[in-house]
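Figure 3 (text version): structure tokens given as input.
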């Protein structure tokens, strides 16, 4: 899954740090898993079978929502460990990778919103 993280952003640090160690691979897997869960949620919501009164689908969506939040929190916690000098998984290059993905995502989101008017 490490190579998939390199296509998230064109930033040089992301391309050169991902796959170098277990920590960066775990971070990529957490982020990738969250993207997959969110894609499933979108697919469920857009399917013609989805009805707001369907308790089973509502329950499934709630579980997926909680799962994606858990994955986000885990990824954020891992980033915190990467960026803290006193922690045993301290890795400035991986920390740079995480923050560059965030910067790129925010920049892309701003561009999309501006294009919408």
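Below: residues designed for each position.
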């Amino acid at each position: 899954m490490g190579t998939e993280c390199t296509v998230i952003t064109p930033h040089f640090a992301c391309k050169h740090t991902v796959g170098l160690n277990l920590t960066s691979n775990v971070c990529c897997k957490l982020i990738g898993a969250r993207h997959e869960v969110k894609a499933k949620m979108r697919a469920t919501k857009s399917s013609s079978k989805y009805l707001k009164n369907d308790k089973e689908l509502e329950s499934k969506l709630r579980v997926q929502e909680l799962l994606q939040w858990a994955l986000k929190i885990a990824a954020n916690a891992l980033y915190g460990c990467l960026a803290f000098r006193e922690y045993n998984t301290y890795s400035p290059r991986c920390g740079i990778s995480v923050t560059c993905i965030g910067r790129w995502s925010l920049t892309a989101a701003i561009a999309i919103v501006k294009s919408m008017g």
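Residues 1-20 have pLDDT under 50 and may be disordered.
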